[in-house]
Amino acid sequence: MSFPAGRILTDTERRWAFWALLAPTVAAVALPVTGLAETLPAGVRAALLLGSPTLAVVPTVILLGAIGIWLRLHVYSGTARIERVVALGAAAPTLLALIWSVRQTTDAPAPVDGIAVATAALLVCALGLVLDTVGARDTASNTQGRTDRLALEAGAGLILVPGTLLTLAAGSPLAWLVLLLVGATALVTAIAPDGLFGSRSPRRHLGWLALLLGTAGLWVGLNRVGTEAPEPYVLPVAGMLLVLAVLIRRFGRIPRAAAASPAAALLTLAGLLVAIVPLALASASGSPARPIVMAAACGVLLLGSAAARWGPSRSAYLAAAWTSGAIGLLVTSIVQLMRVLGAPGAPDARLEC
C-alpha cells in the first residue's frame, strides 16, 4: 500500500487498505507461530509448514521491506502523512521481532533478549538521526526529517522502556550491557542536526540521561563481578565528566578566547570532586598509600591553580581546580585525624615525627 497513488490504487483506496490490513499484519508478525505449532500433531505441523524458526523470519522481513518503501517515499505533500508516521513507528518493533526470530534459529540464551531490545532501539534511533541530519540540509525536507525521526524514536521507546525494566527486574546477568546500550541510545537521541555540545535543541539535555545510564551500567557490572575498591567506580565517571567539560569548552557556544564556559567549569569541578572526595573518604581504612597519593594530588591541584596566570578565559577552570584541591586536602586531613583518634592503643607512628 506504500506505492505512489495512481499506479495501482487511488490515494483513498491506499489509505483504506492500509488501515484494513494493519491489524492482520501486526497479528501475523506478533503471533507466536512456533509456540502454537508445537501443540499440533507432527503431520499437521509439517503440512502447514509451521514450527520452523526460519519461516518466522519471513513475515518480519516482508514488513521491514514495506517500511523501507514508506521511508523512501516523499508523501508529506499528499494525504498519507499519518500512515507514514504509523509505518515508521512500527520500524523498531518489527526489527525487534526480526532479531528475536533470528535468535530462535540460533538457540541463543534468553538473556540476549534484553540486548536485542536495546540494539533494535539503538539502530532505529541512529536511522532517525541520519534522516533528521540529511533533512536539515534541505528546507523543503526539514519538517519531514524531524517528523520521521520522532516517529522512529516513538517506536523505539515503545520497546525500549518496558524491555529495559523487564531485564532489570529479572536480574539478567547482562543487565549492565543493556544499560550501556540504552545509554548509547539516549546519547544518539540527544544529538540534533546542529550537534550536541553547541546545540540549542531541547533534546541535548538527554545527554545527561545517557551519562546516568552509562554510569549505572558501569556500577552494575562492577558490582556483579564483586569489585570492592572505589577507584573503578569513581575514576571512569570522573573521567567522563572531565571529557564532557573539554568538549563543551571546545565545541560550545561560548568563544574559548573570550570567556570560560560556566557549564564546562561546573563539569570540571564535578569531575574532580567525584574523583577526590570518595577516595578521600575511603582512605579511612586500607593501605596508607591512598591518603598519601590523595594529599599529593590535591596539593598539586591547589598549588598549581594558585600559581597559574588567571584570566577571563581560564579563571573559572582554575577556580574549580583550586576548590577541588582544597576540599580534597580538608577531607583527607579530617578522615586521617579521625582514623588516628579512633585507633586503639598508642598514637599512629606516622604522627610521631
From TrEMBL:
Keywords: Membrane, Transmembrane, Transmembrane helix. The chain crosses the membrane at residues 16-37, 49-73, 85-102, 114-131, 151-168, 174-193, 205-222, 234-252, 264-286, 292-310, 317-338. Signal peptide: none annotated. It comes from the Bacteria. This is Uncharacterized protein.
